[in-house]
Prior knowledge:
By secondary structure, the protein is mainly α. It has five helices and no strands. It is 60% helix and 0% strand. This is Addiction module antidote protein.
Amino acid sequence: xxxxxxxxxxxxxxxxxxxxxxxxxxxxxxxxxxxxxxxxxxxxxxxxxxxxxxxxxxxxxxxxxxxxxxxxxxxxxxxxxxxxxxxxxxxx
Length: 92
């Protein structure tokens, strides 16, 4: 019998705005810049890229490009996406 597996995608487990907020907080506290960009990508996929792009006032294509591995989004993009996800940036 062959065991079938599939790659783990955390986006499939971010079901509520609270899940997304906690996920982004953990990454912001423990990760680096590229980890946060990747986490924003994951959270945006969980909510729906089209919805996040509309709320952020950017095109879906530019959102994918900005948040892709190796992407280098502007701070304004990060701020808009964070707000679209129902979160806010804070300095503590």
